[in-house]
Every structure is written in C-alpha cells, then in structure tokens.
Amino acid sequence: MEERLSEVLKNSKSKKGPTTKYILNTTVLTKGKLLKNERIGGKNDKKPTKVILMVGETGTGKSSLINAMVNYIMGVRWEHKIWLEAVEISDDSESHTAVVTVFEVNAQDSPFSLIVIDTPGYGDTDGHNKDKLIPEALQQLFRSEDGIHEIHAVCFVWKASETRLHERQRYIMDEILSLFGKDIEKNIIVVITNSHETVPKKALKLIQTAKIPCAKNKNEPVYFQFNNCQSENFDEEDRKSYKASWDHGIENFKQFFDYLNGINPKSLDMTEGVLRARKQLDASVNNLKDRIVFADYKKQELEQAKAALEECEKGREKENNFVCEIDEAHKQEVQINSSWWHLSKQATRCTDCKENCHYPGCWWAKDLKWCSVMTNGKCTVCTGKCDHTKHVKDDKMYEIQRRKVKRTKEDLKKKYEKELGENKSLCIGLENEIKWLEAEKIRLVEECYQCLDKLMETALKSTSMSSVKHLDFMIEKVKETGKQERVQRLEDLKIRAQMENVGLYRSKCETIIIYL
Length: 516
Known about the structure:
It contains 14 helices and 22 strands.
C-alpha cells in the first residue's frame, strides 16, 4: 500500500507504531490571509469531482472526519496498518483549522476526485471575532473565477453526545445557516460524529427540535454517523477489536458517497448572492446612517441661516451688514483606527460623493470592481452610484464634523440667486433645500428597506442575528416615512427573531456584526 501511495507520502512525516501515522506533506496551491488551497495526489481532470463543505462547532471532530474521508478515498484499509493525516490532530480541544482550507483529494483508484472545504470551528476561544471572518473567505472562494461555483453537500457536523441545545450552539447554528441561500436546503446533510449507537436517537431528536433546515427522507433528517476512532493508537493485541470499528466506518463512507452520487450539485450563485447582499446591506445601512446624520446637520445649518435672515429682514437698515454664525456640516478625511480582527485596515470610499462605501473594505479585492458593494462595476452604496474608478481603498475614512463659520448675505445670494432670481426671497431657497433633504432621507430609507427585503427573500435563515441586527434602526426610520404596513412587517420579523433566537437577541444583537 505504501508503494502505491509513494507519491502522496513523499516528504511526509511519519510516526511509527502498530499503525504508522503519516502527516501528509500536501501541495499548497494558494495561501492567503484566510483561505488556503492544498492538493493531495496528482490532478486528473477527466474524473468527475464531488464538492462538500464541512461546518460545525469547535470540538465536533471535523478534522478527524476529513482525515478519515481522505483515507477512504485513498483506499487505506485496516490491514494496511497505516493512517494518513491531511489535517494534523493534536491533543488540545482548540480548533485545528485556522483558515478556510480547500483540500483537493485525488486517488488513482477512486472513480471521482473529492474537494473538501474545511472551515474553522465556530465558537472557539477566539470568540465571535474570528467567526466574522469565515463568510469573508467563503465569499472569496465562491466568487473568484478559479474558485468553487457548485457544491454537492454542506455537511453540518454534530457530536452524538450533545443532548441539549445551549446558547453557544444556537449562535453557531444561526451564523452557519445564515451563510446560505434557500435553494441549498436539500443539499444540507447532518453528519454525526463520535457515534457508537445503531441510531443516534438523542442527537436526531435535538436536530429536529432545533428545526435545522436539511435534506429529509420520509420527514426525517438525512444523516450519516461515524465514530472517529480509526486514527486512535491501538496496541497490537487490540487491533482485532479495532477492525470492527474500522469496517463500520468504511461501510458508512460507502453509504455517504453513494448518496452523493445520487444528488445533483447545487449552484452557489444564490448563496454567494446572500453573502454579497449581507455585505451590501451592512454597507448601505452604515452609509445611510452617515447620510442621515449629515442631512440632519445640514438641515440645522439651513434653519440657523433662515432664522438669522428672517430676523435681519425685520430691520431693513441692518440688512447690508448681515452676518450670521452657523454650525456648518462638513466631511473630514481621518485615519482609520481599526479593530484587531479586521483583515482589512482600509475602507472603500467615493471621492466624488465624499462618502464611505465599505468598511472594512474587501481585503481580497485588488481591483475595486470586485468589491462586494460593486455591481457591474458601479457602487450600490454611494449617493451617485458612481463607477468603481471614482473610488479609492486606503487607510482613511470620511468623518462627519461641524465647525463654526460666518455667513454674509452675499454668501447666501451666490448660492440661491441663480435658481430663484434676484427678486425672490433667500428664505425660499433655504426652505426648498430643507424640503429636498427631507425627501432625500425618505428615498434613502426606501433604498435600505429594499436591500433588507431582498435578503429576507433569498436567505435560508431570514431571522438569523446577522440578518436582523439592523431592524431597530430600520423600524425607527420607516416609521418616519409613515408606511405603517412596512413597519408592521419589520416588527413581526423582529418578534420572530426574538422567538427563534431565545437568549441571543438581546445579548448578541448589538455585538455580533458579521462583515460579509
């Protein structure tokens, strides 16, 4: 067997024992800040390829399962007395996967090649900050030309010993499911690890209680179970009892891949669209908040000028000496002081509109036309929907500030006489601009509502915390437009989110911010 695997085992570390363990020296094809691509075996483009994505909580055994899968595909069996590790396993309980890793597994005798996308475990000791980066890497993978564009299965990895659903797991499920479009549901498969039962009844009951969207067979979740013990070190005298566990794993993998052969791959267009829509919604709401603050400041500035001008017009003799002091709103470029977990310390901003369009900016987008907030090369966020060439990505942002300035009647005339004519009151010009600012605020709220509405239609879990974190802001602003039907819809969505995310809504709503 080792002869047949000589190419795969070349330069790999080995640990001798009753079962010799090989830490595979994989071929690293690409390695970025949060995404890595590795190959095992020689590539064969003539074979069909199966693509699976592994997601789950830290400690569920994803890495051990991937190693067992690699051994199965490579044809390793009990009698060969070897074990291959693509993901090196240590004794601690931390996630062994620091980045999203794509393993391309090519075995000479396998009828297909396998691509396994391994994700860092959600909810480990690095906290929510690392979890925020997983969607960033997946979007890059699903969006790039040489990335992954279709998938056969999303494997939701679950530990058989889990008998109750605690808040951490609710958060983890919530964030995992919020990554996908609705059309992926029938390709989600439950994989139960560390399972020694004939039927893992407790785990299945918990999965049904949690209402995890997944493929169903006669209204029961489609699941596969593995005991994850093949990699354990056994003494020579224990190897015979060990064989039963190994053979059981082989049979389960055969059933698993037979199932994959019977389903069609699913395009990731909708899922990539959900990831992009979340980013656009975040960027749009953040931009909208800035624009509303700026509009409010401008309105106050105009009202100050209007009040001073009206006071002046009461005493005509002083009109020529008219000077008023107002709080002028302006936008100032400032240095970014970013959080440690932001992969990008830069913001994408429009130099024409002087607006922040995306922060943190897409760390992987070297050309701004590929930034998540761009569609067909145009920005979906800034006021002018400007071309990507009007944008820059650097370490500065626009900050809305106010400063005291003095205005004379001549200053106001320069601004309004061209539109109103010399004989019209300058107050009319100020009133018109105040009305325009009110109309602009209504338009901005409508634009943001439509983005949220689109996300609700396409997301697999529309009540996830990352979907509803803007609800309070949106409800407040939609109320100002007087559209009661929409207010009711948003309030109903908030109630559903509170019911479906018990214990999470208050504690996470303001703190979990997923930058997609």
